[in-house]
Amino acid sequence: MFRAVVLESRDGGVTSEIRELDDADLPVGEVTIDVAHSTVNYKDGLAYSGAPGVVRSYPIVPGVDLAGTVAASDDLRYRVGDRVTVTGWRMGERHWGGHAERARVPADWLVKLPDSIDTRTAMAIGTAGLTSMLCVLALERQGLTPDDGTVVVTGSSGGVGSVAISLLAGLGYTVAAVTGRTEEEPYLRRLGATEIIDRAELAGPGRPLASERWAGGVDAVGSHTLANVLAATKYGGVVAACGLAQGMDLPASVAPFILRGITLVGVESVEAPYDKRVAAWDRLATDIDRDLLETMVTEVGLSELPEVSSRILDGKVRGRVVVDVHA
């Protein structure tokens, strides 16, 4: 028997409760995992809230990420005792996820954790950190270097933004952090940001082409914010876009692309190929500052997840949330 959070659709809403389940309840998959830690992402918040279009069918165990050890495997790539992580792949939406003490998933979804990353650290990183690293790798592939100038990071108080700031600063980049919570300035500067920009400066309609301010960017917000980031990117600069917290629209002009030759790179982590995931985890093992990562972390147990999920939708969660599934 194991504990799991189960979401049900009832009376036009969604309820959550912790239940005792057994292996017979688990979905199909080649690998069964004893989950040690999970996390809470924005998409988890949407699932707990019952937002339309997120969860495809009920009942479901939420949680888009998990880390733990292999308990049973029908795939030769994974043996009992292997430390693994699963991020994305529509867990918590279409497939039972990580807010449980046990999970079963297709073997192709797994990545073995680097030796230096334990399960708690893996979930302090999670989808948000993996996405941040994929953004950094995208900037590097386009040739961006610390000598090129400032890199702007939007949504900087959130999980993706926080990890992106620490990674970029650790690699020697000058980082400008955009946030709607200016009271978080000490936190953002501790992560490595040297400039703090009020979100309001970029959140509204802007000019098609603005004064050149930064050589690159990591954007987790979309909409007007991304449009304004593009408009102020220097000649030949590059921006990695990975989120839509402000909206799915992009009210931008072609001017930055055809007059300054900038590049906009889309970054997707949910179904990223295995080789990209391994490359990102290998870089995270060497590049992420563990002490800084710990300053981003709040740890919770299963019973606290509905409240934390509500807070993350309200923009009241800073950094990363690690879930100890046994607490």
Order of helices and strands: EEEHEEEEHEHEHEEHEHEHHEHE
Taken from the alpha-carbon principal axes, the silhouette is globular
Count of domain modules = 2
CATH superfamily annotation of the largest domain: Medium-chain alcohol dehydrogenases, catalytic domain
What is the rounded distance between the termini? 16 Å
CATH architecture of the largest domain: Alpha-Beta Complex
**Assigned CATH class of the largest domain:** Alpha Beta
Major sheet: 7 strands, mixed
Portion in beta strands: 25-35%
Using the coordinates shown, work out and report the CATH topology of the largest domain.
Quinone Oxidoreductase, Chain A, domain 1
Helix content: 25-40%
Q: Radius of gyration over alpha carbons?
A: 20 Å
How many alpha or pi helices?
A: 9
Report on this structure.
This protein has 327 residues and is of the alpha/beta class. The chain has 2 domains: 2-112 and 296-324, Quinone Oxidoreductase, Chain A, domain 1 (Alpha-Beta Complex), CATH 3.90.180; 127-266, Rossmann fold. Helices cover 29% and strands 27% of the residues. It has helices spanning 42-49, 119-141, 159-170, 185-191, 223-231, 255-260, 274-287, 290-295, 305-313; strands at residues 2-10, 13-21, 31-39, 65-73, 83-87, 102-105, 111-112, 151-153, 175-179, 193-198, 214-219, 233-241, 263-266, 297-300, 320-324.
Topology record:
Elements: E1 2-10, E2 13-21, E3 31-39, H1 42-49, E4 65-73, E5 83-87, E6 102-105, E7 111-112, H2 119-141, E8 151-153, H3 159-170, E9 175-179, H4 185-191, E10 193-198, E11 214-219, H5 223-231, E12 233-241, H6 255-260, E13 263-266, H7 274-287, H8 290-295, E14 297-300, H9 305-313, E15 320-324
Parallel strand pairs: 8-9, 8-11, 9-10, 11-12, 12-13, 14-15
Antiparallel strand pairs: 1-2, 3-4, 3-6, 3-15, 4-5, 5-7
